[in-house]
Amino acid sequence: MISKTQLNEARLDLAYRAKQGIDFITAATIIWILITIIWSTNFDLSIKNTATLAVSGMMMPLALLFSKVYKSQWKIKENPLHPLGLLLNIAQLFYFPILVLVIKLIPDYFVPVYMIITGAHFFPYAWFYKQPIYAIMAGIISVGAVILSFTVVTSSPMMVPLAMAITLAILIVVLSISNKRLAQTSQYQVV
Predict the structure, then answer these.
(1) Which of 31, 62, 66, 131 is within CB 3.0–4.6 Å of 26 for a Cys-Cys bond?
(2) Could you tell me if residue 100 is inside a domain?
(3) Segment 65-111, tens digit of pLDDT
(4) Number of domains in the chain
C-alpha cells in the first residue's frame, strides 16, 4: 500500500520528469493551428472534416519531437503512477466513435465536438500532475466550444479551432512557468 506522502511524491516526480505534459500540449497547439488553417479554406465540409482527422494523426510524432525539445520523459517505469498517464491518454481514443457519428449526422459540429472531447480529457491531469490549470482549461475549452457552437460555428467556423489553438497556447505558457518553478523547487536537477 502506498502512503499519501508517497503518492504525492510520485505525482511530483511525474510532473517534473514528464514536464507536466507540455510536449503533448505543444503538439496539440500545432495541430489546432493546422485545423484552423483547414477551416479557413473554402473546401467542402466533408473535406475539412476528413483533413481535420488526418492532421490529428500527427499528434504522437509531434509530441515525441517536442519531448526532445523539452527533455521530457515518457517512460518513468520506476514510478508506480506511470501506467496511469498512458491510460488517461488512451481513454480519449474511446470517444472517437462519437466523432464518427457527428461527421455522419451533424457534420457542421464536428470541430466543436472534437474540441470538447480534447478539452474534457485534460481534467484528470489536474490530479495526475498536481496542476489545477488542466481542470480549469478542461472547463474553459468544453464550455467555450458549446458557446462557440451557438454563436459562430456556421457563420465563421474557423473561430472554433482558432479559439482552441489560443487556449492551448495559453496552457503552454502556464505550464512553462510552472515547469521552471518545479525545477527550481524540486529535489531533482534539470538535465
Answers:
(1) 66
(2) yes
(3) 999 999 999 889 899 998 898 888 888 889 989 999 999 999 999 99
(4) 1
Q: Which amino acid is at 127?
A: W
- Residue for cell digits 496539440? 28
- Give how far the C-alpha of residue 105 lies from the chain's centroid of Cα atoms, to the nearest Å: 26
Burial of 152 (0-12, 13-18, 19+ CB in 10 A): middle
Residue 81 lies in a domain: yes
Question: What phi-psi label fits residue 41: left (phi over 0), alpha (psi between -120 and 50 degrees) or beta?
Answer: beta
Is residue 191 situated within a structural domain?
Answer: no
Per residue, the 3-state secondary structure of 39-64, as one string, reads HCCCCCHHHHHHHHHHHHCCHHHHHH
List, in order, residues 6 or more apart from 147 with CB less than 8 Å away: none
Residue range of the domain that includes 99: 4-184
